[in-house]
Amino acid sequence: MGGAYLRETGPVKKNTDFNPIRKGTPHLASLSEKERDALIKENPDYGEIVCRCEEISKGEILDVLRSPLPVYTLDAVKRRCRPGMGRCQGGFCSPLVVQILAKECGCSVEDIKKNTKESRILFRRTKEAGK
């Protein structure tokens, strides 16, 4: 069915530039010390550990957020690269992941959702800075 639909919309040509092998994102916990050092020198975000339990770096989270199929919720980031899956269950890293998400999406931390659009994590600020 899919091929017939494509033929109806226009000529189907083989993409000679297509590369079926996609370079995966690095997983810091599985790299050697030498590979980690090289990666951190190339991109310092890989040197900032966000999730201590699973050894997930800021660079890994940014890779997920900037991928061709980006994610926009806390749980989606958790499914893609595992922050919050460790011993503390996100008690340490979830606020950091929310901040990274908000900065990358260009919104406030109150706009970041846990999973669906109804699953708010933060409702509003309770204290004003400097008071």
Largest sheet: 2 strands, antiparallel
Give the low-confidence spans. none
**In total, how many beta strands?**
2
CATH topology: Arc Repressor Mutant, subunit A
User: In the CATH hierarchy, what is the architecture at level 2?
Assistant: Orthogonal Bundle
Shape: globular
- N-to-C span: 65 Å
Strand residue percentage: under 5%
Q: What is the CATH level 1 assignment?
A: Mainly Alpha
In DSSP terms (H or I, runs of 4 or more residues), the helix count works out at 5
Total number of distinct structural domains: 1
Cα-based radius of gyration, to the nearest Å: 19 Å
Mean pLDDT: 87
Key terms:
2 strands; mainly alpha; 131 residues; Arc Repressor Mutant, subunit A; two-stranded antiparallel ribbon
How is this structure best described in words?
The chain has 131 residues and is mainly alpha-helical. The protein has a single domain (28-122), classed as Arc Repressor Mutant, subunit A (Orthogonal Bundle), CATH 1.10.10. It has 5 helices and 2 strands; from the N terminus they run ααββααα. It has helices spanning 2-9, 33-42, 58-65, 74-81, 94-105, and strands at 49-51, 56-57. Strands 1-2 form a two-stranded antiparallel sheet. Strand 1 (49-51) and strand 2 form a beta hairpin. Helix 3 packs across helix 5 (94-105). The mean pLDDT is 87.
